[in-house]
Specification:
Layout lengths: L25 H14 L4 H10 L7
């Protein structure tokens, strides 16, 4: 079994912009979430359920 690396390589760090509390980033986060579900090859019905129910957690 391989030993774990204790250090994070700079290439692994995310280049996404930081999120600001109270900003208009919810739609951006939803699009990232949906893209990741597609990359993970989740079923159509799972993605549809999440997309339909995300409006419950949408900030007011």
């Amino acid at each position: 079994m391989a030993k774990r690396r204790g250090k994070i390589i700079e290439e692994e760090l995310s280049t996404q912009p930081p999120l600001v509390k109270g900003g208009n980033d919810f739609d951006y986060c939803v699009s990232l979430f949906m893209d990741e579900m597609e990359i993970r090859n989740l079923s159509y019905h799972t993605m549809r359920w999440h997309k339909e129910n995300l409006h419950y957690v949408r900030p007011f």
